[in-house]
Amino acid sequence: MINDMSAIDSEKSDSIIKQIAAHYKEILRLIGENPEREGLKKTPMRAAKALYDVTSGYRRSAESVVNSAVFEYAGSNIIVVKDIEFYSLCEHHILPFFGVVTIGYVPDGSMIGLSKLARLVEVFARRLQVQERLTQQICDTLSSILSQKGVIVVCEAGHLCMKMRGVEKQQSVTTTMAYSGVFEDSDTRRAFFDMIK
User: Fold this and answer.
1) Which is the catalytic residue, given 26, 36, 85, 91?
2) Catalytically annotated residue among 122, 129, 131, 155
């Protein structure tokens, strides 16, 4: 049964990728290229596979990624996972933005496997996204599925929509933050930032 489901999922994925590739082929024509020339013959399929991969977050559930690794824990000090790298696509221009996410939380009876925090970042980053929402979604998900006293998420990223088009500011970095619970208190936030310096 599992193999049958895998075959169905694979067939569905292959069909979607082929449809995306056909659109990429037409886009190449529309921008003035010849999609039949040697260097571009396989580009539509390569681009379709790449897009399907970098948007895999639409086909994954944050809850299923995280719930399998929530454990009882009696500690109550801040836990931090720093500099989780991510790559995403800006929903406004479908250009990449990328950087790091740092997550902190104060347990209240449970903790989460450290690698699951990185997987949670991937679920939301691998969608058409804006950095502000990405940061908030990570914070909200952890706040809802984990028994905790507070969650804080800081995201720093560079956006190619600002670097390679538009204002073309190469050194610009955007920082966003979302927090809940005990991190509403400025002293607790300060303790978190002291930890990640």
Assistant:
1) 91
2) 131
